[in-house]
Write a structure and sequence with these properties.
Elements: H1 4-17, H2 35-39, H3 53-56, E1 68-84, E2 94-96, E3 100-102, E4 105-112, E5 117-132, E6 145-162, E7 165-188, E8 193-204, E9 207-221, E10 224-231, E11 234-246, H4 252-261, E12 269-276, E13 279-287, E14 291-300, E15 307-310, E16 320-323, E17 329-339, E18 344-353, E19 371-381, E20 386-401, E21 412-428
Antiparallel strand pairs: 1-2, 1-3, 1-4, 1-21, 4-5, 5-6, 6-7, 7-8, 7-9, 8-11, 9-10, 10-13, 11-12, 13-14, 14-17, 15-16, 17-18, 18-19, 19-20, 20-21
Helix pairs in contact: 1-4
Amino acid sequence: MVNARICGRMAGVAVVLLVPAFSFGAGFALFEHGARGVAMAGAFGATADDPTALYYNPAGIAFLEGTQAAGGAYFIALASDFNGTDPYPGKGYSASQKSQVFFPPHVYLTGRLSENLRWGVALNAPFGLGTWWDDDFAGRYITKRADLKVFNLNPNLAYRLSDNAALAVGLDYYVAGIDLTRSIGVINPYTQTVAEVGQVHLYSDNNFGLGCNIAFLGKLGHGVSLGLGYRSRVKVYFEGNASFVQFPTGYNDFDAIVGRQIPFDRNPKVESRIEFPDEIRLALGWRGVRWGVGLDVMKMGWSSFTELPIDIKEFPTLSSVRPEHYKDSLTYRLGVEYKRSATWAWQFGFLYDETPVPTESVSPLLPDADRIGLTIGFSKQLNEKMRLDVGYMHLDFPRRSTKGKDHDNFNGTYENQAELLGFTVVYKF
């Protein structure tokens, strides 16, 4: 029979290893909230001349006429490849994420309260994360599958100060949920190798957070416009449960000791929190008879995400605080629109998005890197009341290496790519 004290220590290691997968990286912000704006690479903050302005610059709705609505979705296909390096999982090891398609929606509605005052309500998904690796993936003790969904219900009031200036204020009401799965690994004293003794599934109910936003749009003359916007940080406190499943190893006494250390027969409560970053947008635009140009610079305040606490009060040995130390990041967006006729327009764009994720936090959970994007799209006026916008974006992520610095000692390089295709229907009542 194996020494019980040794097994107890090994099972204790499993308890420590349960926690890190409950970490989110940064770089999981979503900007796809209107096909015309995305087709201009998101450089829409100084144009903001349809209901999607409620995301890009809510002050823009002050210049709209009548009651207007917009709605649509984006389809996002992600690909991620991993190549290992020494010491673990070693040179020659490679893996790829399973194919997934995400489709975050966006809905906008705006109307008039008085001659200069308008209201607007937006619903979109400002953040999201989805990764999915095979069950035999070498990094399964870090993560197998992760799913973060965040929806924002965003009411706004916009006041037209003059024919050339407007101001807007609003509330950001976040509804968020998380779902994470990973394997539990313990060194088997019989074989002196890591044994997969079980699986933990962490999941939360819908949790809520509240923030605010303010925006300004000024028309400077000669077709030039200036947009400014700010969205505050939003802190969400997550409450959920952990579900544990034990896998037999073939060593009954070892399995029994592991079973006493980990609550395979319980679903203990789990608590955590994430402070989603604030956002500052500076936008310049120019509109002519046929051509329009937009330039947006955004700063995302990811430095608010310094650590991630995990609290399992019933089993304190499962609790942990994971350091993150993310940094603020900048995004540069350039877009062009060409109005071919009264019913047709084409859009093009380019973007560069800095990753806020430090090297030590790069992992299979979020193998993030800087992003370079190319966009194209069109707008078609279907009739006097309805317009269809279609946009496509290709995102390329330069190869990112952990450089042997990652928290989880899982070494290698990641290569990512994303394709985005979306549509928005704009309707004037």
